[in-house]
Specification:
alpha/beta, Rossmann fold, 2 domains, 10 helices, binds adenosine-5'-triphosphate, binds magnesium ion
């Protein structure tokens, strides 16, 4: 049984059909890229999956449970994480404290009630920092991190919730090219080690082809192709809708 199943998802914004009819599945531990031109409906899809967008039609099943239109917090608790929301890190706190906070929140505590919370979850926090290669900056204020390291911290914060599926919407946006490949290679390694599935969007085809096990191509709210890099690259509809943009330049 697939970990995630989406059936006939649809979402309209006024007259705009953002997602027309999307059905797909993601298996445990799968690293899947969702690609497509600007406005294809990728972010809307992600929003439906994690409960931030209510679909007009369709169904989302996670681990066999119908989670359609569940509130985002409940979806997160069940094991669907959404990473790389910069606002979720706290600049004045240390890197380690940001992770500790995520670990504390997962157990239902509230940071301000804890008082001297610095002693809680230090070891698991350091283990997560080491996992993403940030063990050397644990004591630094978040605000002083280089952009690439902030992205790694966001990954660690997402992993603190022990997701079984991680949704990553353009996780490498704004990063230098070399750092982008490094980050996604790290994500893939961690996903395999923890058997956490990853569904990500990415506009850089080199990264997509390098790290994705499987690629789904969306255009105008529809899934137009699906498969490994070679299959997708060779698909005429994909070339016309998406890769064709490059040919024209
Ligand atoms: N909250 C919203 N209100 C109105 N229209 C929206 C909203 N969100 C998305 N849309 C529209 O729905 C369509 C799909 O948008 P979406 O952001 O899902 O595409 P995308 O594939 O993520 O694009 P990009 O690659 O640019 O991030 C677009 O036409 C967009 O303008
Ligand atoms: Mg988007």
């Amino acid at each position: 049984m697939s970990l995630l199943r989406a059936h006939n998802l649809r979402k309209d914004y006024g007259g705009v059909r953002a997602v027309a009819d999307m059905s797909f599945a993601v298996d445990a531990g799968d690293m899947v890229a969702l690609i497509g031109p600007n406005g294809a409906g990728k972010s809307t899809c992600f929003g439906i999956l994690n409960g931030q967008v209510r679909p007009d039609a369709g169904q989302v099943l996670f681990d066999g449970i119908d989670i359609t239109a569940w509130p985002a917090r409940r979806v997160a608790r069940l094991g669907i994480g959404r990473s790389f929301q910069i606002a979720q890190t706290f600049g004045s706190m240390s890197v380690r404290e940001n992770i500790q906070m995520a670990l504390i929140a997962r157990r239902g505590f509230v940071w301000r009630f804890i008082g001297p919370a610095r002693a809680l979850f230090v070891e698991p926090a350091d283990a997560l920092l080491a996992q993403v290669g940030l063990e050397h900056v644990g004591d630094r204020a978040c605000a002083t991190l280089a952009y690439g390291d902030l992205k790694r911290l966001e990954l660690a914060v997402a992993l603190a919730n022990q997701p079984r599926l991680l949704l990553m919407d353009e996780p490498t946006a704004g990063m230098a090219a070399a750092d982008r490949v490094d980050l996604m290679t790290l994500v893939r390694r961690i996903a395999r080690e923890q058997r956490c599935a990853v569904l990500f969007t990415e506009h850089d085809m080199d990264i997509v082809f390098a790290v994705a096990d499987r690629i789904m191509v969306m255009d105008r709210g529809l899934l137009i192709a699906e498969g490994d890099a070679a299959t997708v690259r060779a698909n005429p509809a994909v070339r016309a809708a998406y890769l064709g943009e490059d040919d024209a330049t």
